[in-house]
Amino acid sequence: MGSSERAASERVLGQEHLLDALLAERDGLLSVLDRVLALHGTARLIRDAAGADAGFVADVEGTSQAVIRWLAGNRTDSLQDLAVPAGQGVGGRVLALGRPVRVSDYVTARSITHQFDGVVSREHMSAMLAVPILEDRPGSARTVAVAYAALRGPGAFGDDAVRAVQRVAVDAARALRLADRAAVGQAAAVAAERQRMQASLHDSVGAMLFSIGAQVRDLRTTLPDNPVLRTRLGRLESDISAASLALREALLALAESSPERALPIEIAEHCRSFEARTGVPARFVQLGDVRPLDAERTTLLVSAVREGLLNVEKHAGAATVVVSLGEVDGGVQVAVADDGVPRRDGDEDTGSDGTGLGVRLLVEKAARLGGRASLVHDEDGGTTLRVLLPEPPR
């Protein structure tokens, strides 16, 4: 083989290694973005980090129990899908206390309850450690999963093992946040597609059925007396009516959306509609998770986005628009920011403060809900409409 052929072969080999590395990186990212894969991997990491014989993870369901879903190093299926109520056993104490719990011998330990001695004995486990996987929120932390490590035979978990499992728990919490956000994004994309399908079916098939039905009714009234033809037209009209009913039911099914998805989906749809209508890029940015709001608050925030985009379309002459949604100061805020020309005080429907009627109505409605709305003109051009609403009382 000549030198040029060897060089070409080495380049191909290098490209293969690069491709393998990229594929491995992709697989790693996908595993992080998938809740099941992330926690299954966590079970193995816990076992290795603690120097344990087994590691397993329980997913918290509701507020009062955790269910063991992912295991590494287990010998039987006795722990699989085991429900652990708050306060019971090692994991239940972690769920109740929100801090690590360890015992040197599970079956004889006096600090825990013993509903699960049988399944633990079948696994021949002795020392056990459990650590909460915490979701950090402003001012509080919530246990979203429980990480376990267990030994078979003599031994105990020291402080180093506790810290090692806590580090894995921190990484697992981060992976869960990414997985949950990815799941929300996927759900939002699916819901948006359902909404587009609904609009398309309504505008095409719905309009077609209405047109055919109208023509059949006209034929029945204008044709000369023909009992056979009249009967056939009657059946056709009945079939069209049944098809229209089935279409309405399908449209209702496509329209179903949970409250927590409704707000970002509505905002994203308004941005897409604005961009298609005006040709001005409108980017929607969701700044973290937003908790579900009631219908009144959701409607007002969507109205604020619609009003902001309408003002941009009518007055701004903008090149770009950014619409953001996020939690601010304990409430939920939407903002519509453009880089165009601010509205002049002499424009139609403008009040003494330089704001239009639509914005003044938003200010009044937001105030009734304990929130606030503002329209700010930047000195170097551009305008930002903000509406902040407090979360409803629980």
Which descriptors apply to this entry?
alpha+beta; five-stranded mixed sheet
What does this structure look like?
Helices cover 53% and strands 20% of the residues. The model is unreliable at 26-33 and 343-354 (pLDDT under 50). It is extended. It has 4 domains: 1-32; 36-183, 2-Layer Sandwich (Beta-Lactamase); 194-255; 259-390, Histidine kinase-like ATPase, C-terminal domain (Heat Shock Protein 90, 2-Layer Sandwich), CATH 3.30.565.10. With 394 residues, the chain is an alpha+beta fold. The strands form 2 sheets. It has a 6-stranded antiparallel beta sheet with strand order 3-2-1-6-5-4, sandwiched between helices. It has helices at residues 3-32, 35-50, 89-97, 117-122, 159-222, 227-255, 259-278, 295-316, 357-368, and strands spanning 54-61, 65-72, 83-85, 101-103, 128-137, 140-150, 282-287, 321-328, 331-338, 372-377, 383-390. The chain has 9 helices and 11 strands.
